[in-house]
Write a structure and sequence with these properties.
With about 120 residues, this protein is mainly β. It is about 5% helix and about 50% strand. It has one helix and eleven strands. Strands 2, 4, 5, 6, 9, 10 and 11 form a seven-stranded mixed β-sheet that branches. A four-stranded antiparallel β-sheet has the order 1-3-8-7, with no helix packed on it. The longest helix has 5 residues. The N and C termini lie far apart (about 35 Å).
Amino acid sequence: QLVQSGGGSVQTGGSLTLSCVASLSRSCMGWSRAIPGSDRLNVAVIDSEGTPSVAGVVKDRFTISQDNTDNTMYLQMNNLKPDDTGTYFCAVEGVSLTREQCANLDPADFGDWGQGTQVTVTS
């Protein structure tokens, strides 16, 4: 139901774009990063009205957006750093949420997940 594309390996300072096609109803969508040994982190979420919220560690570098004409969500990642390395999952929650609830949603509370894509940033 969620099909991701993008990702790969870049050097520090490089850029990557992730895409996620969601053929699901959703009130909140987001990108979550998984690193072995660490809790999963929502790096960016966007609510049904298109209001984005990004984590402080990626603020001013990552941009989340959506195109409702083709049900696609994007994560534009600029000025990448080695600490951005991880597996990135797109995720969707269909239960109606307020803007604040979406912005503060725990990764475990998303109902559906994409297959994940690896992002590796080398120094």
